[in-house]
Amino acid sequence: MKIAVIGTGYVGLVAGACLAETGNDVVCFDRDKAKIGELRRGRMPIYEPGLEELVRRNRLENRLSFTSTLTRAIKSSNVIFVAVSTPQAEDGSADLQHVFSAVKDLARLINAYKVIVIKSTVPPGTSNEVQKIIKHETTYPFSVVSNPEFLKQGSAIEDFMKPDRIVVGTGDSRAVDIMLELYSPFTKTGAPILTMDCASAELSKYAANAMLATRISFINEVANFCELVGADVDQLRRAIASDKRIGDSFLFSGVGFGGSCLSKDVKALTQAGSEEAYDFKLLRAVDVVNSLQKKQLFSKIKTYFGNLNNKVVGVWGLAFKPGTDDMREAPAISLINDLLSHGAAVQVYDPVAMPVARNIFGSKVVYASRSYDALKGVDALAIVTEWNEFRGADFLRMKKLMRSPVIFDGRNVFAIEQMKTHGFQYYSIGR
């Protein structure tokens, strides 16, 4: 098929590259000419394992191209994916201006029957508004499909190529047939393509992320209680995760969730409920718990030292999770800002997120080129992201570099007994 993808952000770029990988002719559009220029030169705007190689291969095969000319993208394609950002508005709702603007612009260029696929995360009812916008701009036939993405940063390529499920929301049988054909290469292993109405499809993304966020906030609440009663959240997690009704996914305690999806989608769903006079009490609590959890590590550090003036704290991990350079809503931001505001000096390291961190903190922190460099002369180490390279740390080397052997582990990377054996003062979450 001939496909256009509007937006070369995280979702659009991954979708475009993966769709090209299965033999489709894909053109990705973005208004940002500089970004398109970088993509044409093979430079990725985001870090995602496997993405650069996938883009390069399909560029060489002439199946994937990039353009800043919308006319070319729309007129040459029969399926158009809208994958622009839906940032959080001041009231917590999803800001749909980029979606509606993109739809209006593409509608004016429709020259034959097109399937318009909304890949962006949008609240229920958005597809109906999209229908109205397109009808106002063209007399050509078209179909609107809600097709939410369920990609995890760090494993997005695998998630797209081997999905758990594919959700297709539309009441148009012609569009259903086209989407089934388009996604058939990705469902050879039996993953279902679930067809439904647009509102249900739109809500499915919010509901899935809200469920995952709820599990994280739940285990973090339990972890905080474990500390009060002398329990170990890791042992507790194994006990409850053995229940087949519960399972073990998203049940690891820590310093809260971040990223571009969970927090934003919880707030957006809560606000969507308010607009319908419905109060999502549980989701409001999930959001509050997560905000408080991001303060847990700083609270432990402050309690330990009392006065943080002239203290030096090393921070391992800046991205909101391993496998990405995304620092949106990252717990590390909250921790570092709190440390700085209380007079501490901060030395940071992350395997891939350092350029992003420089844009956030500027000259306020010291950037280490290697993990151990961030430990030189520090009074304590805070671990905020559980990168695998931290798990095999050389403890003897760490102790020689640190002014005092104190670790605040926000991801429970190390075992308590292991830390005692090596002579560290060690504080983790829920243990």
Summarize the structure.
With 431 residues, the chain is α/β, with parallel strands linked by helices. Helix content is 44%, strand content 14%.
Q: What labels describe this entry?
A:
431 residues, 44% helix, 18 helices, six-stranded parallel beta sheet, alpha/beta
Q: Could you characterize what this model shows?
A:
With 431 residues, this protein is α/β, with parallel strands linked by helices. Helices cover 44% and strands 14% of the residues. The chain has helices at 10-21, 33-40, 51-60, 70-75, 97-107, 126-137, 156-161, 173-183, 198-229, 233-241, 262-275, 281-293, 296-305, 331-341, 354-361, 388-391, 395-401, 416-421, and strands at residues 2-6, 25-29, 64-67, 79-82, 114-118, 142-146, 166-169, 193-196, 312-316, 345-349, 366-367, 380-383, 406-409, 425-427. Strand 10, helix 15 and strand 11 (366-367) form a beta-alpha-beta unit. Helix 1 packs across helix 3 (51-60), helix 9 crosses helix 11 and helix 11 packs antiparallel against helix 12 (281-293). The longest helix has 32 residues, at 198-229. The termini are far apart. The mean pLDDT is 96.
Uncertain parts: none
What level of helicity do the residues show? Answer: 40-55%
The number of strands is 14
Oligomer: single chain
Give the end-to-end Cα distance, rounded to a whole number of Å.
54 Å
Question: What's the alpha carbon Rg, rounded to whole Å?
Answer: 23 Å
What is the arithmetic mean of pLDDT?
96
| Order of the strands making up the biggest sheet | 3-2-1-4-5-6
Overall geometry: globular
What is the number of helices? 18
